[in-house]
Amino acid sequence: MEKVSIEALMEHAREARKKAIAPYSSFSVGAALLASDGSVVTGCNIENAAYSVCCCAERVALFKALSEGVRSFSAIAVCGGRDEEVPCPPCGVCRQALAEYADAESFMVYTMEASGIFGMTLSEYLPKSFSKKELK
Ligand code: THU
């Protein structure tokens, strides 16, 4: 599997954002999830008239990948905004969903900042998280 650069991963997210279904918020988000085998699975946010049914781009990408049997991930790139791109850090639900399938210490979350692509680990986004280790 070929190596995917961070810029290329963000470009996948940008392409996915074009498919966002966001008639209520007008906030379109794209995500590109990098699996440990080098493959990329994308997602966009999907909204619903019953707002609580809306699903974020990150979870759409994650659930698409999981449903295809992919179980190990190394990074995600996220971009979002109304007309222009603005920084779009993953929401708390998506952080928790990703943490279930990633090594949070090494899994990278890339977002778009004014200065360019910004990377931080998932454990920095979700410190002291509840996980399967608590259920032991
Ligand atoms: N949204 C995402 O898709 N990902 C995020 O990380 C934050 C928010 C979506 C949900 C909703 O459709 C819209 O953006 C506004 O909250």
Helix and strand pattern: HEEHEHEEH
CATH superfamily: Cytidine Deaminase, domain 2
Instruction: Identify low-pLDDT runs.
Output: none
CATH fold-level name: Cytidine Deaminase, domain 2
| Tally of separate domains | 1
Name the hetero compounds present: tetrahydrodeoxyuridine
CATH class: Alpha Beta
Count up the helices.
4
> If classified by CATH, what would the architecture be?
3-Layer(aba) Sandwich
State the shape: globular
Physical arrangement of strands within the biggest beta sheet: 2-1-3-4-5
* Mean pLDDT over the residues: 96
The total beta strand count reads 5
Description:
The protein has 136 residues and is an alpha+beta fold. The relative contact order is 0.16. The longest helix has 12 residues, at 6-17. The mean pLDDT is 96. β4 and β5 (116-121) form a beta hairpin. The chain has a five-stranded mixed sheet, sandwiched between helices. It contains four helices and five strands, in the order αββαβαββα. The protein has a single domain, classed as Cytidine Deaminase, domain 2. Bound molecules: tetrahydrodeoxyuridine. Tetrahydrodeoxyuridine binds at residues 22, 25, 27, 29, 45, 47, 54, 56-58, 78, 88, 90-91, 94.
Summed up, what is this model?
With 136 residues, this protein is of the alpha+beta class. It has helices spanning 6-17, 57-67, 92-99, 122-125; strands at 28-35, 40-44, 73-81, 108-113, 116-121.
Keywords:
136 residues, alpha+beta, Cytidine Deaminase, domain 2, five-stranded mixed beta sheet, 5 strands, 26% helix, globular
